Structures are given as C-alpha cells and as structure tokens.
Amino acid sequence: MTTSISAVLLSKFSEVVAAQMGLHFPRERWSDLERGIRSAAPEFDFKDVESCLQWLLSSPLAKSQIEILAKHLTIGETYFFREQKSFEILEEHLLPELIRTRRGNEQRLRIWSAGCCSGEEPYSIAILLSKVIPDLRDWNITILGTDLNPRCLQKAAEGAYSEWSFRETPQWVKERYFRNIKDGRSSLLPSIKKMVSFAYLNLAEDACPSLLNNTNAMDVIFCRNVLMYFHPEKAKTVIQNLHRSLVDGGWLIVSPSEASHVLFSQFMTVNFPGATLYKKDAYRPQTMEIFPYGPEGEPSVSLQPSVECAGALDPKVSSPEQFREPVSSDAEQRNRTEPQLTPYGEALALYERGCYGEAAERLVVWLSQNHGEAKAMALLARVYANEGKLAEGLEWCEKAIAADKMNAGCHYLRATILQEQGLLEEAQAALKRTLYLDQNFVLAHFALGNLTLREAKVKESEKHFENALSLLSAYRQEEILPESEGITAGRLMEIITLQRNQETGARG
Fold first, then answer.
1. Contact between 112 and 221 (Cβ < 8 Å)
2. Which residue, of 74, 144, 221, 305, has the fewest CB within 10 Å?
3. Distance from CA of residue 162 to its chain's centroid?
4. Cβ contacts of 51 within 8 Å, gap of 6 or more
5. Sign of dihedral through CA atoms 338, 343, 348, 353?
C-alpha cells in the first residue's frame, strides 16, 4: 500500500477508532481510513494530514471529533424504502401479527432504526405504518431513529429531501406523503414527520437497552449496513445489546450482506423468500423457513432452550460484592470460590444481562416472601418495562412508591413508564413530584425538557435543560448518574447540547 501517512500512525489510529467508535479498519482497509482522514483534516483546520493524525492521537477522541470523523469514515448514502424486500416482509408478515396481537389490548408498537443516517429509513417505516393501520390515531407508536452523525440527524429532523433520496422508491410514496417546496426538494407531510423522533447514539459505547434513551422494549429493530463497519468483537457486543433491547418475539432486520449464523447465534434465524431475519425467542430453533404462500405442512424446527443467560448467576461472572450473602467461616472455607448472591442480587445480575423473564421469576418469589421491599419492587417494574409489559411495570412501580413514598427514583421510574404509555400529562406530574422530593434529580429536569419540547413549549424546555446542565457541571465527566442505567454526566451533557442545537436548526 502506498501512502504518505506512516503505517505506524495508521495502525494506532485504527485501534483508537475501533475502541471509541467501533469502526473496523484492518490493514487491508487502511487506504479507506487514510481517505477518510484526508477528507476530515480541513474540518480540523489542518492542511498537513499526518499532523492532523498525530493531533487526533494525542488524547482520547472528543465528542466533536467523533462527530466529524463519523461523517468521513462511514457512508451516509440511503434512500426511501431501500432494500425493499425488508419492507415487504415487515408489511406482509411482521406487522399483521403485531397488530393482531396488540389490537384491543395495549395498542402500542415500538420500532428502532439504528444507524438511521439522514432519516429515510425511519420515515419509510412511518409511511408504511400509516398505510397498514387505518386507526393509527388510536395506537401509541414509537419510531426512533439514532445515528452517530449529528449532521445527518439534523437533516433527518428537517424532513426535506432531494430527488436522490427517491431513487428506486415506489412512485406512490412521493405522491401521497410529500409536497414540493420552492428549492426543488420534497418535504414530508407533518403527520408523518411527527411520528419519528431522532437522537444521537453511539452503538459502540452508549448503554442500551435503556429507559433513558428510549431503546428498551422494541418490537422491531432495523440495523442495516451498520454492523459491517464494526470490529467483529465490537459487533458481537452491539448485537447482544440489540437482542436485549427487543421484547421476546421481537425482530432484528439487518442487510443481506451482514447475515451471519455465528454473529446472531442468540437469535432464531428465520428465512423468508429473498431475505433472512432474526427473531428473539426464549427457545431458539436453529432456523425456520417462511414460505410465500404457506408451507404444505408445519415447518419442522428443532427447539433448544436459550443459553443467553447461562452464567448470569455464576459468581465468577457477575456477583457485585454488596449483593453476596454473608457466610460463616466454615461455609466460607467450603465455598471460597463460590460466593452466594442474595435473591435481589441474583435478579439484578439477570436483569443486567437482559434475562428479564428469569429476573422477574426470582423477584416475584422474593416479594411473595418479603412484602414491602421497595427496591425489589422497583427492579421488577424496570424488568417489566424492558419486556414491554407497561401495565405490570406501572403496577409494581406504584407498589414501590406506596412502600417508600419519599423515594424520588421510584417517582422518576413511574414518569418514564407513563411517558412510554403516551400519558404525557401524567408523566409530567410524576416528574414534578420527583423534583419536589429531590430538586437536584438531573434526569427529571432532562425528561421535563424533552416533554415540554414535544409540546413546543420552547422557553419552558430551555429552563429545564439549563437546570440539568447546571446540575451536571457538579459531576465528573465520567461519573455515572443515579437511575441512568450507565449514562455518564459527560454523555448526558453532550445529548442535551446536541438536542438543543437540533431544535435551533429546525426552527432556523
């Protein structure tokens, strides 16, 4: 490979990019890495590419540096209804079953476009839902688009596109759901635009599933043409997180080039005509064939219990010291290598590994014997929320509040569940109660900022965001926030700043 950048520098930088961004540039792709650095250097105010690279290597990458690099190291090309076979399967197979099982009960659907680029994919999903659900107003619909590139997210929030975004797109899409604007672009109808929310998310680093970033209890996740950029080990971690972010029976849709029995071994592989999808199931058959007009007989599948949670209670794998049962000296001698978890500690370990069913079972048994333990009730509420069982989650959250009325965290959890149910007024009241009990509860300020922003109460939203930023300044950047499930103070500051910038850009 001929390059003006030394191989040593490229090697070091490829390791940094893999660690902090999850992007995989092995030696055979160093020419792509160099091309991306050359393209990005002017934005860093460098004319000399090697000097730029040495500067980037001088300290951990900052958020602003990652944003610029993401734009130059990944391909931001997409269009409406790209890889149309996936949308056909969604329309003909996945949505009908979801709608049938949810109609008349808790009428909610949650879909996540991970790596949404400039928004064509999540908006395609919104268009499809508006087409197939006649009583859409009676449903609580969440369509989340996340990406690493804030400039793409700003374009997505704007919702206006050139002809290039409609290549290979069915004509009816543009005719029914867009209107022409004066600069030659086409703008989405407001009814479709408001169905989708966008947020910055780094799949390689950010916590998911999380109630805070709304990545929990998803029915369908689109993660297409994203995993191919990741280092194999990082890709495994991302896939595990996506698996945990799905409800049982949820679907993961990747691009055909990313399909892999090895990478997606925790899923059930489902072969549709022309595409392979992955289903989260407590019992994972190796494969299942879906025929276009139905098989002549029942498909033959070999069921095997999920091993995803194997080792979840192995004390050598996950046993926080504070949750181990005290043991006598004799017992300690016998079980020196196998310290025992408390039942609550067992449930917490299972929860953190995404084993929600097993965690719920242990908590229900524990609470039947230990009435009134607020922290166990709150954990059970979180478990149910991540499973998409919001009514059960709310019930146990309210029981936790009854047991510990002054616990601000329980009121915040209740607000989060109410918000997922679409009960925004009740959620705001719960958040205000949280702040009454603890005026320094930073996540409550952040949540109120988001809720009031959705209602176009810009000044009130700004006040809450300012309060959150003021409180965050007292934390260390790397300090994990209470009730945040792993979000650091620095990360939340970045999220708030980005959201405010996006809103300013949208208004401008």
1. yes
2. 305
3. 28
4. none
5. positive
Long-range contacts of 268-273 (CB under 8 A, 24+ apart): 272/85, 272/89, 272/93
The upper half-sphere exposure of residue 416, i.e. CA atoms within 13 Å in the direction of its Cβ, equals 29
How many residues does the structure list for the chain?
508
Q: Which residues contact 57 (CB under 8 A, 6 or more apart)?
A: 9, 12, 13, 16
Assign 156 to helix, strand or coil.
Answer: helix
Evaluate whether 478 touches 488 at the Cβ level (below 8 Å). yes
Structure tokens at 271: 């072969």
The C-alpha atoms of residue 15 and residue 61 are separated, in whole angstroms, by 12
CA 276/CA 266 separation, integer angstroms: 15
Tokens representing 54 are 């040495």
**Is 8 exposed, middle or buried (CB count within 10 Å of its CB: 0-12, 13-18, 19+)?**
exposed
Report whether 120 contacts 188 (CB < 8 A). no
Cα–Cα distance for residue pair 460/448, rounded to 1 Å: 9
The string over 65-91, giving b where at least 16 C-beta atoms fall within 10 Å of a residue's C-beta and e elsewhere, is: bbbbbbbbbbeeebbbbbbeebbbbbe
Rounded Cα gap, residues 105 and 45, in angstroms = 56
Counting runs of H as helices and runs of E as strands, what totals does the chain give? Answer: 21, 11
Residues 6+ away with beta carbon under 8 Å from 503 = 453, 458
CB-CB neighbours of 181 under 10 Å: 10
pTM for this prediction = 0.78
What's the burial of 406, exposed, middle or buried (CB within 10 Å: 0-12/13-18/19+)?
A: exposed
At 441-455, the pLDDT tens digits run 999 999 999 899 888
**Residue ranges in 205-252 assigned as alpha helix (H):** 232-245
**What average pLDDT score do residues 27-50 get?**
87
Which of 55-59, 279-283, 377-381 shows the lowest per-residue confidence on average (mean pLDDT)?
279-283
Other residues' Cβ atoms within 10 Å of the Cβ of residue 50: 15
pLDDT tens, position by position, 480-499: 888 888 888 888 888 888 77
